[in-house]
Amino acid sequence: MSQPLQKIVIVGAGFGGLSAAKALSKAPVEITLIDRQNHHLFQPLLYQVATAALTPAEIAVPIRHILRHQKNVHVVMDSVDAVDTSVKCVTTKDGQRFDYDVLILATGARHSYFGKDHWAQHAPGLKTLGDAFDLRERILSAFEQAENLASSDLAAAKAHQCFVVVGAGPTGVEMAGAIAELAHSLARDFRKIDPKHNRILLIEGGPDVLPSLAKKLSKRARRDLESLGVEVLTDTMVRDIHADRVETSDSTIASHTAVWAAGVQASPAAKWLGLDPGRSGHVPVDDTLRPQGHDDVYVIGDTALALQNDKPLPGIAPVAKQMGQYVGRRLAQIAVGHTPKGSFRYKDAGALATIGRNRAVADIFGLKVTGFIGWLLWGAAHVYFLIGFKNRLFVVLNWLWSYITWQRGVRLIMHKP
Amino acid sequence: MSQPLQKIVIVGAGFGGLSAAKALSKAPVEITLIDRQNHHLFQPLLYQVATAALTPAEIAVPIRHILRHQKNVHVVMDSVDAVDTSVKCVTTKDGQRFDYDVLILATGARHSYFGKDHWAQHAPGLKTLGDAFDLRERILSAFEQAENLASSDLAAAKAHQCFVVVGAGPTGVEMAGAIAELAHSLARDFRKIDPKHNRILLIEGGPDVLPSLAKKLSKRARRDLESLGVEVLTDTMVRDIHADRVETSDSTIASHTAVWAAGVQASPAAKWLGLDPGRSGHVPVDDTLRPQGHDDVYVIGDTALALQNDKPLPGIAPVAKQMGQYVGRRLAQIAVGHTPKGSFRYKDAGALATIGRNRAVADIFGLKVTGFIGWLLWGAAHVYFLIGFKNRLFVVLNWLWSYITWQRGVRLIMHKP
């Protein structure tokens, strides 16, 4: 009688979970991949959905479609409620129960408002398609409100034309640039709005935008943003956020649309494992990506706190992807009776961020590139990493169309019931 | 001193309102076009959004973008609350007030549940992008539920794999065919669902599907539907609709997803005008499309009850479009001091409906076409009438892609907050 196959349960089908599943494609194992959503999301382009440049379907693909040919994986759309490590099983909201021999937690992160959770309703963040959809409705509705108020109440109209982005990491920088371009592209479609009253502010607590990049690139990004009309306020703390204003350490800004790009918090994986979550909820892992005392549990991606050269690895897509590949390959070796060797090491290929049309900063394999070339590089890298030929084709066509016409193609307010 | 320009207020930017505005593009008038939505919607393809074949942006364009070069029109996104015909003014939910010399009401229709309004929550209809989005989430979630239940509760899984479409007019027929094809295309992505348990039922109170078409085409459409696996139940009345079942005159069908395509009711235009609304809420109009006693009000499209050869004109896009053009041209003549002549006559070019891949029925200028040629004709006609080069391009590419791959490209469940 042959031995039963090893059961691997993966929670989360982001970059980490999906890479792990794919790295196990030829392994004699039985994989269950559980996600709350039915789709894998290409988060690096999510801000383009929020700013009406791309449609949701262009950056999201059903998980079960991606893995349709991989027969050793069963995709489940459900929310994990709890993990019982003593009997090695995962239970879900819909009452399903999945036993595991090995568990991989790749559940990602959500926004953190540093204890001010009531800010969430006024300054939504950007993690899911739902978030992007919501933000798109807010941004487009703000311009409609401004148009309706422009003749009767100029101050109110101006407040609707003012957008505040909190946090100047890659998401905040790309978001601020994209809103500035969107506002510009809308100008000729409106009759009463005065485009001179459009204001886009980027607020950052530290001294630099894109603090993780080299100083030179950070400075260039700031110049690029300012040339697009974005007001960059560094060394500025947000004190409070209301429906109609943002209060900073220096002033009060009348604005109805704020976007949160300032902090993240890991998902409840630490709680599931009965571990003490740190301030940001991450699960500390060793150099094989396992938390202490849990030999059959791996924690990867934004959920993990992994150190390399005594510094925590950042919560970005390439880290999650490499972690998933590492764990998947390791388990594939074990499944065929080999002893896995080697610990995880992140290979940093660099980082890039686009500010807008013809503008980006990139630090690739130590090479620092800006402007038009940086922008082409940024576009090529993002299209390359997108999943699916159709998505690549449609994203490129959409970008070409926008580039030629200076228009944003997805300016829909849907009033979803 | 020159005379002030005539003020024309148009409520609704569907096919009727938009055509009226465009027909006035060169007239010396001041147009205000008010709509609750920011976009004009190509409703004939809405069922393809609901069945994950097209994205919302491909069939909807911002109204102000369509009219960006027409300087005599001001687009307002707001809901009309009331019309005061005595002082000739329209007031909106946001408290705006628009005086008019001439008012055009083109506010369309909503579903009618024949007094059973509680059916709406279980059997949504299909009129707006929000409706289509909601229906797409329901249909895709039903398959996910079926997958989760397939091992533990087969009867429950089957109920989730059962879809009931009520009403066999063009929308109902196209919807039923599209769900059947979607179900088929999903089969290989799921592991536990048994595709043999997929059921799609089309329920119609009358004896025929597509009753407005020639008997020959109606019979062919029925055959085409049945060859796709759709169970067509004619002469069948719906008695009640619950979350988990549909009760007909003959039986009870266990189903969690019902779609309403059976009846429509005109918008509250009759109430605004202080007229007695008929059973379906339409406003009776004369052969210049004006209701009795209101010389400066035109009512067009699905909102109007207009007779031709003693029969009411149907609530379809070509009627609304021709009505809008008629009123627009008439007002353009008046604006330059001419006496308008002639009454409205609808020129019927025919009708078409698609059942699925390579299958459609068409009655164009008296010519009856079915099968592959009918299907090409249907596709060409719909692409031709779409607004915007980009939308045409993207719809054609999406269709080509689906045709080649047998896949539906927009299978997203977004859980919009």
Oligomer: homodimer
Low-confidence stretches of chain A: none
> Number of helical segments of chain A?
11
CATH topology of the largest domain in chain A, what is it called? FAD/NAD(P)-binding domain
Structural class of chain A: alpha/beta
Q: Can you name the CATH architecture of the largest domain in chain A?
A: 3-Layer(bba) Sandwich
Which descriptors apply to this entry?
FAD/NAD(P)-binding domain; four-stranded parallel β-sheet; 31% helix; homodimer; 26 strands; elongated; 417 residues; alpha/beta; five-stranded parallel β-sheet
Describe the structure concisely for a colleague.
The structure is a homodimer of 417-residue chains. Chain A has 417 residues and is α/β, with parallel strands linked by helices.
